[in-house]
Amino acid sequence: MGFSKQAFYRWRADPVTDRDWADAHLTNAAIDSHRDDPTFGYRFIADDLHAAGHRASEQRVWRLCSKQRLWSLHAKKRGRNRKAGPPVHDDRVRRAFAAPDLDKLWLTDITEHPTGEGKLYLCAIKDACSRRIVGYSISDRMRSSLAVSALQMAISRRNPSGTEVHSDRGSQFRSKKFVRALADAGLLGSMGRVGACADNAAMESFFALV
């Protein structure tokens, strides 16, 4: 059967339990969730697992994440010293934030707003031609799903084809979920350089008015 007698006897003496199998599946799902968005700590990962149909308490997710050293790589979005990751797209825009027609170029970014009940995060998508917001999403958590929800709204409202979507290098826009959403809709991603605010100046100036 492809394994030694010693391995068989070790397995029979200490068989893998159903709980062990369940933990293994949860661990794989947690690793995928964290790889998709490295800012996730165990609480966000637990939420992601629940959304995917897995049943597990936060304590159990914490235990599994601790074993795998899945820690949140969190950095404040608006901090001066925030570090951006490697780009997943070339900079197709190169600061040319105008477009001759609708749905040729969309610009997107995330901003943070303090409220009496905590912080809220807004992701907006603006059409470079009309300068109108074509999609947005608001959440109390700055996750990849925030950017994906804004993109899905814009897609459902505009039904674009071949649109360039320009962002900074935030983890939400580099996440597998966002990149996959772009590809599934036939859109083209574009990313500015690290620390170059002018590379997404059109959205920065919009958020200054919000």
UniProtKB/TrEMBL annotation:
GO MF terms, alphabetically ordered: nucleic acid binding
Origin: domain of life: Bacteria
Name recorded for this polypeptide: IS3 family transposase
A GO BP annotation: DNA integration
InterPro entries, A to Z: HTH-like_dom, Integrase_cat-core, RNaseH-like_sf, RNaseH_sf, Transpos_IS3, Transposase_IS3/IS150/IS904
Gene3D superfamilies named in the record: Ribonuclease H-like superfamily/Ribonuclease H (3.30.420.10)
Domain Integrase catalytic, chain residue ranges per copy: 96-210
Function text: Involved in the transposition of the insertion sequence.
